[in-house]
Recover the amino acids of this structure.
């Protein structure tokens, strides 16, 4: 039986200058495990996954069920989950350390067999039967897996990166239009038959890629953040100039021109018709932000914690009303 523990809501509301001004708030903070990814189907059905809480209950997994936030135990006593992707009506896939991929059907978590014990850093699928998983280890061999039936199988990587780059994330528009990003600015495109490498003009890691309406964006960088967008003629660097942009690890595109990117030191950038600009949250955030998601109503969710510490703790979740 799954155990669920109701979490207290740590709401810190920020005053807005008018009814139409988006408002940021802290929803959860000081969780025992850092939160690394967030996804959902609506503003009332939001999932966040993250680090091993080191309390014997395994990775931090929290779920918004209506007005309540609950911690959900996965049946794994240890391990960190780095990503989550699912489908309305199920299933939900979660991936992390030790080659761990969990499939949740709404009542039961299934630990799936995978080709290796390398860390799964990213998951995405056009449908529950057309799933991708990517990962590896920094400065070591990366991997790309595809789900065929109930079996995860390794996909052939281009020779030039097969032993050089970890792959961090994957996203696409369909089963025949998928982009994968990774270490050293690597970007691979799946056209339905093979993976090919495309130039990004970036030398540092691209940690996350996301699209909405066929408009792709990827973010990365370690000390200095970078944002690249895909146009008809390839990838273009659209990082804001002027002030220093810290390393960015999470990005999500919404409707129209809107998108959000998050990163070190609580940095949040949003995209409008004039491009990307940093956001003043209205409060100080000590933690790094690692992942972001925009719900169908336009609300923004971002998660993080002390992601640069070995313990990956102090989980935090913030929200922006639309």
């Amino acid at each position: 039986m799954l155990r669920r523990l109701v979490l207290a809501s740590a709401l810190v509301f920020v005053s807005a200058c008018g009814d139409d001004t988006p408002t940021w708030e802290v929803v959860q903070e000081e969780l025992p495990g850092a939160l690394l990814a967030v996804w959902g189907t609506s503003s009332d059905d939001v999932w966040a996954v993250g680090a091993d809480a080191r309390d014997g209950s395994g990775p931090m997994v929290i779920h918004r069920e209506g007005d309540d936030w609950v911690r959900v135990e996965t049946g794994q006593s240890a391990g960190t989950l780095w990503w989550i992707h699912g489908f309305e009506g199920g299933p939900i896939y979660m991936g992390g350390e030790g080659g761990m991929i969990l499939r949740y059907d709404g009542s039961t978590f299934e630990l799936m067999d995978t080709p290796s014990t390398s860390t799964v850093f990213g998951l995405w699928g056009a449908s529950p039967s057309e799933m991708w998983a990517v990962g590896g280890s920094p400065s070591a061999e990366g991997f790309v897996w595809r789900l065929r039936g109930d079996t995860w199988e390794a996909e052939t990587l281009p020779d030039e990166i097969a032993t050089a780059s970890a792959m961090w994330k994957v996203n696409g528009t369909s089963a025949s239009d998928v982009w994968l990003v990774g270490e050293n600015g690597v970007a691979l495109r799946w056209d339905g038959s093979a993976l090919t490498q495309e130039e990004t003009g970036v030398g540092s890691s691209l940690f996350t890629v996301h699209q909405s309406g066929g408009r792709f964006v990827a973010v990365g960088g370690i000390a200095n953040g970078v944002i690249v967008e895909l146009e008809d003629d390839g990838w273009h660097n659209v990082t804001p100039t002027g002030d220093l942009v810290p390393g960015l690890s999470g990005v999500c595109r919404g409707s129209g021109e809107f998108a959000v990117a998050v990163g070190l030191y609580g940095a949040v950038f949003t995209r409008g018709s004039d491009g990307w600009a940093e956001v003043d949250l209205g409060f100080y955030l000590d933690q790094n932000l690692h992942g972001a998601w925009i719900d169908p109503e336009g609300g923004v969710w971002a998660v993080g914690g002390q992601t640069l510490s070995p313990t990956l703790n102090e989980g935090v979740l913030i929200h922006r009303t639309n």
